[in-house]
Structure formats: structure tokens, C-alpha cells
Amino acid sequence: xxxxxxxxxxxxxxxxxxxxxxxxxxxxxxxxxxxxxxxxxxxxxxxxxxxxxxxxxxxxxxxxxxxxxxxxxxxxxxxxxxxxxxxxxxxxxxxxxxxxxxxxxxxxxxxxxxxxxxxxxxxxxxxxxxxxxxxxxxxxxxxxxxxxxxxxxxxxxxxxxxxxxxxxxxxxxxxxxxxxxxxxxxxxxxxxxxxxxxxxxxxxxxxxxxxxxxxxxxxxxxxxxxxxxxxxxxxxxxxxxxxxxxxxxxxxxxxxxxxxxxxxxxxxxxxxxxxxxxxxxxxxxxxxxxxxxxxxxxxxxxxxxxxxxxxxxxxxxxxxxxxxxxxxxxxxxxxxxxxxxxxxxxxxxxxxxxxxxxxxxxxxxxxxxxxxxxxxxxxxxxxxxxxxxxxxxxxxxxxxxxxxxxxxxxxxxxxxxxxxxxxxxxxxxxxxxxxxxxxxxxxxxxxxxxxxxxxxxxxxxxxxxxxxxxxxxxxxxxxxxxxxxxxxxxxxxxxxxxxxxxxx
Length: 504
Description:
- The protein is of the alpha+beta class.
- Helices cover about 50% and strands about 15% of the residues.
- The chain has 25 helices and 11 strands.
- It has helices at about 10-15, 25, 40-60, 75-90, 90-105, 115-125, 145-165, 165-170, 180-190, 195-215, 225-235, 240-245, 250-255, 255-275, 275-285, 290-295, 295-300, 315, 330-340, 345-350, 390-400, 405, 450-460, 475-480, 490-495, and strands at about 70-75, 125-130, 135-140, 320-330, 355-365, 380-385, 410, 420-425, 430-435, 440-445, 485-490.
- A hairpin with a 2-residue loop joins strand 8 (about 420-425) and strand 9 (about 430-435).
């Protein structure tokens, strides 16, 4: 999913830890009234675009075809643009629909309101953006010119990417609305994660240029191997973003993904294949899944990607349920879920044992208008596959333990359980878990008999080996929906980079 060409600055804030921190960053100035740029400052900033573009072209090997237009915006203009884009974008619409699915799985608290949070994050942190519809790099009149120069290095990378492959079409899967047939379900599971993977490529490339611009002259990310690792190690650092400091773990981890993991992906390509493979090559032959982003060697080796299939659920569901959402439960999803319910160490340990996951959500037609705004209206199915039976059993325990957190009055019905099953009653309907070797089946909200029919149909269509492409990963909808919302305050990043950057 995607929303306009923007970058998440708080993610960069946690990103480039490990290099020098200037004394100016350590001594925080007192808040000052907001000042706007003078005409002379604006002219100098606009003049710097061409100089920075020269650096970007050399760093990426992607020369600009035409001169990039530039525009200076006020805070009110930016806020109005963000709100309008968020409300109109197809990816944002799916993201808002996915909110109650995330809550159904326990990845977001039931009282959390996603839309105002994401808009608050953007308006708090944005520092500039490239618009791939208007082809304009937009600068902000309330941020010091020197602070916007590293932003320009990032955003002008998006400009040369756009001139190379056309970002607006290249970065989307083309689907709109809700899948309503088995054929469309399969097509979406196969291709939906295209957006996530391609967003990680474009943001990872832009991050690589941002880092190269920020490092002392002569150094690059290719010869600074600790940078990408430090980004991921410090991804939980929310200094500089009061909004992000209040965010659930799901958002703190998933929103940083295109930047931290995208940069690590690009760094591996630079080291093992050089500039042509990391930039033009990755745009010409991009990865199709977050699995490839998280495992660059798999991308370079063209290795098969774990993917599970959905059966034709419509014959079982459509009489009483409307299709609502579907996609992949990927490695990042299970890492977040296990960390939430079992602790970070357990999440980190079990995630590499993931070997595929798929989910489907349907909404009860009989639900009231008010109920349809809540997770109580949904039935969800989820098949999770693991590399070992021990890992599958561990994940079953993790998943079972968190049911009491989601549902008040949870009660296990031992008398209704068959071999390998756990059956529970909840105020939102039955819950069925079935462990079969390396597979864990979950249905929540569907009547027990229907849950068993869905389980049997889903297990029957699975193959014994991995397939070539994976679908849309549930938690990464948030990152893809915001990843194109411009670069945010570089001061949150600069404390981790070189003195070449000017800190607030």
C-alpha cells in the first residue's frame, strides 16, 4: 500500500546510530517561536537543488532526464495536502479498513485510533517531499535551509527513480476495492506485497544516498558495514517524536521497515553487486516480497519465497459474510506478534523459523452499522506454517496465551475438542486452533463447524514446497501507506550521523 511520495523521518531518526554526535545535538536548545525562511534563504535553498542533484546522480548512477521543479510550501499548505492525500488514496482506504483486522489479531489495542495517529505523526515530523504526480520537490518554509539539504538528497533520489521507471505506477499493484472472488483472492495473495517490497527498494535507495551525503567526504554506506545494523538495532528509539513515543509496537516496528530493512537490503546489494545492481538493477528487476527485503541473499539467488494458498472460501462464507480483507502474515508479523505476547527476545528468536502465513477476514452481514466499525463484526482465518514442529508448538502457545487479553470471558471448551484442537468461547464467537505438524490453524469469530470446514479446505490446497511470490503482509500496510509522505525532520537523524549535518 502507498500514499504519495513521502518519507518517514522519525524512522530515520532511529536509523543511523553509531557515528559521531555533535555537541549541538546534546545540548537541546529551548523551544523558539517558529520562523519562516527569508526570500534570500529560499533562493539559496532552491539554488542548492542542482548541486545536490549532481551528487545524487553520481551516487546512484541514475542521471536526471529533466530538471526537477521545486516549490516552497507553508505549514498550512502541507497539512492540507497531507490530509487530502490521506483521505483520497486507495492504499490509505485499505489501511483504514485493515485497522479492525489488526485489532482482531491483537496487534493494536481495541481503543487505538489509527487515522488521527498517522496524521499527527506526519504533521509533527515532515520536512519535505517529492510528489510523483506533479514531479515537484516540495520544501518547507519553516525549516532551516541547512536542515533541508540532506532531505533534498533523499527526495531527489525519488525524483531520479521517478524519471527512470515512473514511480506512481511502478510502486502499486493496480488493485482497487475489495476482492470478491476466488480468482481475485489468489491474484492478490500472489502480488499484493509488490507494493511493500518496491517501497522498501525506493526508500532503501533514498536512505543510502541520504547516508552517503551525511557521511564525511569519501565515505559511503558500502564501506560502512555497521550502519544498516545500527539502524535496525536502534529502531525502537523514538527520541525526537513525541507522537511515535506513544505508538504501539506494531507501528514502531512496521513503519520503520522500508527505511531500516530497505537500507540494509540496498547495502547488501552494493557490497555484493555494486552500484548498478543496487540502483538501476533493483529498479529493473525488483523484489516481490518483504521476505526478499529481509533476506537479500534470497533475492540475489532468486530463491523461492514461502507462500501459502487460500481456497475458494466464498462457497462457505458468502451467504452470511461479506469479504473484508486478505493477505500474508509474514515474518515481520510473527516477530511483532511474538514480541507483543511473549517478549522481544522470544519474537526475535522465533521469527526466522517462519515458513509462510496467510489470512482472510470476512464481515458478518447481520452486524449492525455500529458493530461493523469494530472487530466484533469480523471472522478471521489464519494458517501459519513453520520450519519445525517445535517452532509451530511454540507459536501456538504464544497465540493461545494472548486470547485472554483480547476477549473477556474466554472459556476453553474441552468437551468440543478433537485431536490437536483447542476450542474457546468468546463474546465475539468461537475460536479454533489446530496444530498439525508444522502448521497452526486459527479461526476466530466463525462458528466451530464453519471454522473446521474452512480449516480443512485451506489445508487441502497447500503444496509441500515454497512458491515463488508472496502476498501483502498485514502489518506492513501501515509502512507502505506512509512511506511516500516525504522526509521528516532530519534533526532526529542527525544526532546519529556526521557533523556535516546541522542539528536543531
